[in-house]
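Example S7 (structure tokens).
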């Protein structure tokens, strides 16, 4: 049995962070956590690019463009959707999640999702580093691991076909 896993060493990786500006109190903390995690795992500052879009709904379109640029080993989506009194939350959260998932399937680079979907601002802040760790950092580390396992998978030889 052959087992392929991605390492958490990010030296030499180029990463695009795509960040929604809406709910910036939360998303800026996700960005800080993601960038810090990337640096701690070996990514140089010059190999981290940050792209900003208006909100989480718009995030997949920019994420797709960045992922398709072929300049990055990994891209990370960072956003926050906080429930309000209307069904708007479900639409934005659902479509953003579907969009990121579709990009992950279509892309040759690693795609990671650090989009918070929370009932309250307090929950979002907790997940952005106040209490429950930083989900931006977790998404960045997942992107590193995925980028490395994708590299390993690309090296696996094709099976020989019986003639």
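Recovered sequence:
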């Amino acid at each position: 049995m052959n087992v392929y896993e991605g390492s958490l060493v990010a030296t030499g990786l180029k990463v695009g962070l795509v960040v929604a500006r809406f709910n910036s109190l939360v998303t800026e903390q996700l960005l800080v956590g993601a960038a810090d995690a990337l640096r701690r795992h070996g990514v140089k500052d010059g190999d981290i690019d940050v792209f900003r879009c208006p909100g989480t709904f718009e995030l997949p379109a920019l994420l797709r463009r960045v992922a398709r640029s072929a300049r990055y080993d990994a891209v990370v989506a960072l956003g926050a959707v906080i429930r309000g009194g209307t069904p708007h939350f479900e639409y934005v959260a659902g479509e953003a999640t579907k969009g990121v998932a579709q990009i992950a399937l279509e892309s040759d680079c690693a795609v990671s999702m650090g989009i918070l979907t929370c009932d309250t601002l307090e929950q979002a802040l907790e997940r952005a580093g106040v209490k429950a760790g930083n989900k931006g950092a977790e998404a960045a580390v997942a992107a590193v691991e995925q980028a490395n396992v994708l590299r390993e998978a690309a090296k696996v030889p094709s099976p020989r076909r019986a003639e």
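Notes on this example. Strands lie at 15-20, 48-53, 74-82, 110-118.
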